[in-house]
Amino acid sequence: MNLMAMLTPALSLALVAALCLAGWRMIRGPSFVDRFIAIDMLTAIAVGFAALTTVATGRGVFLDIALGLALINFVATAAFSVFLERKRRDR
């Protein structure tokens, strides 16, 4: 049994724990910004799951999915930061 086969369940559990915590923050977040950061974190966790699936299965398609999610996440975060900056300037 190789090292990655032994680490995959532990890494999956760590990602599930992070998924639960970020989901909780998204539901309970006191502000809109907290909720958006939780969604950002959920997307990053999805990238982690796709990367872990790539390593576990050896299929490169999942790495393409991870890259696509990461790019969408980056653009969404940049757009949200521009939105917050404009909102701050209007005050």
From TrEMBL:
Its main location: membrane. PANTHER family: NA(+)/H(+) ANTIPORTER SUBUNIT F1 (PTHR34702), NA(+)_H(+) ANTIPORTER SUBUNIT F (PTHR34702:SF1). It is found in: Cell membrane. The keyword Transmembrane helix applies. Belongs to the CPA3 antiporters (TC 2.A.63) subunit F family. The chain crosses the membrane at residues 6-24, 36-55, 61-84. Signal peptide: none annotated. The keyword Cell membrane applies. It is a multi-pass membrane protein. Keywords: Cell membrane, Membrane, Transmembrane, Transmembrane helix, Transport. This is Monovalent cation/H+ antiporter complex subunit F.
